[in-house]
């Protein structure tokens, strides 16, 4: 049984089949000595090739679709079945629905192995987050769980001039398996003033604690000076790993350790088990190990497993 599950599933990137990932990795290694924007360009091309290669409505998608609708083993909730049925009428049998039925099968299994007091985080991007949120509601909320947050992971990057606003965030959907359990460790971050290097004026309150008042959305909050900072909100500003950073391993979809550290610390304690079923180059498992959690990492790319093994 698992306390914390992180599913790192970016629609576009996760579509890379192992064949393409190997290719991307090789390209990365070759290009590391060249200019970094060249890496990005090549990766983009390979990733989009991988995208069209994997997600199409084919016999596997049809089989998964039927398995959900017939629900022979009674694993799916009525809400999930109705949702998939309904989506077929809206988005038709196409790459998006192929991806959603694939995710449905996996999310249902994840829900099964998660401990009753466990939490689940799904990382995706805005092209699919609205569908995945419905799906997660149909799996988790329909079975007594709770939707807790949609975390916006905001980052900065250079993107080409486009016909729309630059996409500068990903989404992380956070659920628990049961409303009864409130397993959560508050994460403290620097306050906005601290970030800007401004001094904060704390005064002693009636109990002798140093505190100040802060207004937010029309409400007043008392902030104590505890040296820990302020409780983290649901918008996280965490930079991508810089191409020349020590942390960078050359795996195209590698996530910053800081991101996983926050998730693991918030929803697990030492000795708990963390599962990442799309572990890539092992960011989750390596952070889990450093934080004295037990861990399980799964990936269908041999290259990913090789890098993960080396990393830990
Ligand atoms: C977005 S990446 C994860 C990146 C990871 N968080 C990291 O920091 O490296 C998704 C991973 O899912 C893997 N993957 C794709 N389909 C899979 C499947 N059916 N089973 C297991 N892993 C899969 C890919 O090989 C890829 O490494």
How would you explain this protein's 3D organization?
There is one protein chain. The chain is an alpha/beta fold and 312 residues long. The protein has a seven-stranded mixed beta sheet, with helices on both faces. It has a three-stranded antiparallel beta sheet with strand order 6-7-8, with no helix packed on it. Strands 5-9 form a two-stranded antiparallel sheet. It has a single domain (2-187, 249-311), classed as Rossmann fold (3-Layer(aba) Sandwich). It is built from eleven helices and twelve strands. Helix content is 40%, strand content 21%. The protein is globular, with a radius of gyration of 21 Å. Bound molecules: S-adenosylmethionine (SAM). The site of S-adenosylmethionine (SAM) has 20 residues, from helix 1.
**What is the total tally of β strands?**
12
SSE run: EHHHHHHEHEEEHEEEEEHEHEH
CATH architecture: 3-Layer(aba) Sandwich
Instruction: Name the bound molecules.
Output: S-adenosylmethionine
Shape: globular
How many structural domains in the coordinates?
A: 1
Q: What is the radius of gyration computed over CA atoms, rounded to a whole number of angstroms?
A: 21 Å
Low-confidence stretches: 10-53
Q: How would you state the average pLDDT, rounded?
A: 83
Order of strands across the widest beta sheet?
Answer: 10-3-4-2-1-11-12
Layout of strands and helices, then pairs:
Blueprint: E1 2-8, H1 11-14, H2 18-31, H3 36-54, H4 59-70, H5 78-91, H6 95-113, E2 114-124, H7 129-139, E3 146-154, E4 169-176, E5 188-189, H8 192-195, E6 203-204, E7 210-216, E8 219-224, E9 230-231, E10 235-237, H9 257-267, E11 273-276, H10 283-290, E12 294-297, H11 302-311
Parallel strand pairs: 1-2, 1-11, 3-10, 11-12
Antiparallel strand pairs: 2-4, 3-4, 5-9, 6-7, 7-8
Helix pairs in contact: 2-3, 4-6, 5-6, 5-7, 6-7, 9-10
Bound molecules: S-adenosylmethionine (SAM).
Residues 8, 10, 13-14, 16, 21, 251, 253-255, 278-281, 283, 298-301, 304 line the site of S-adenosylmethionine.
